[in-house]
Amino acid sequence: MMQHIEQERLRFEQQRRLIYRIAGVLGVLAILYAQCINFIDPSSSYAYRAIYALNHIAFAGVCIAVVWMLRRQHIPIDRIERLMLVIFIVQSLGFNGIVPAIFLPSPSAMLIDAIGDDIWFLLIICVLAVHLYDVRRGALIAASVFLVSFGIVMIQLARWRLIGVDAANSQQVISIYLMAGALLGFLIVLSAYRAQAERLRTGYELMIHMAYTDTLTGLPNRRRLYEELCRLIGMADRYGQEFCVCLFDIDHFKQLNDQHGHLVGDQVLCAIAQTALPHLRAVDHFGRWGGEEFAILLPQTSLSDAQMALDRVRMALQAINLADVPTITASFGVAEYLPGDTSESILHRADQSMYLAKTTGRNRIVVDGDVEAGLRYAHR
């Protein structure tokens, strides 16, 4: 399972790197477009346009550098994300806050600039902060950036009012920032709620996994197998689907533990789990029943077909090669579902078959019909 999780993590990281590289290229194109608009805009002063031209050049260089870093697999993507967040915050406070407040001539120009892109870029940065950090730290960063940006705007609006500049649009600018702040607050609360829901869901899935998985082998445990057996009995009663139950036990496992230690015994159990699984179908249910005993549920399988399938498993177990460990064998008992069977009755017959396999020589498969013959032989 851990290997599967690691593979999923690596796949997700590659997807993130690809998306960010595409976003970086698109960002360079957007900067070039913004520079063209800045160049042909006659309403702005030369100083204003020069400052933005230098900013566009620097920002485009940053985007190109980030695209290059994303191709370097040894640079953690989390570090790149947080570096970009810092750059975006500086960009927003400097060139969407301080520079416009200094160079724009009136509140009406500030209103147009805010509606155009300033407020949206600010919100994107704040949401990104909540995404990259835990909710508490992200909310603190987002709120700080927003309040500083809003403070810059309020200072400039207050300065305009003091020097007598027409402040007819000041109220609208303030309203826009207040609505953006309310939206940001809602997004932070939503993120906190989502984070809590994710923690609960992850905790629930972890408890389910622990409850139904054998910690040593990673196979389904007895509880899980028992539930699947009850489900198969229900399907058989309703639709007449045949199935078989197999219990198998490792031969001389106690002796192996005594001679080689429990660590080697655990290695044997794990090797059996890894070896048997590829020889079973995807619909079969294979798990650890307890101790050195395993169980296999074979849906839609007759007794003869089950015997052939399990013989392949038996032969595969004999081929396991562990250092200083003798040949591994197992005794198999198989029972076929009969109308009226309960989980206890079919397990009892499979257990009897397995016991007969152990008492008549081990390393063999005994099916349900052989039990009576074996018992008669034993009483002679």
From TrEMBL:
Q: Does the keyword Transmembrane helix apply?
A: yes
Q: Where is the GGDEF domain?
A: 241-370
Q: Where are the transmembrane segments?
A: 18-40, 46-70, 82-103, 109-133, 140-162, 174-193
Q: Which UniProt keywords apply?
A: Membrane, Transmembrane, Transmembrane helix
Drop me one GO molecular function for this one. Answer: diguanylate cyclase activity
User: Does the keyword field hold Transmembrane?
Assistant: yes
What PANTHER family does the entry give? Answer: DIGUANYLATE CYCLASE DGCM-RELATED (PTHR45138:SF9), REGULATORY COMPONENTS OF SENSORY TRANSDUCTION SYSTEM (PTHR45138)
Protein name per its UniProtKB record = Diguanylate cyclase
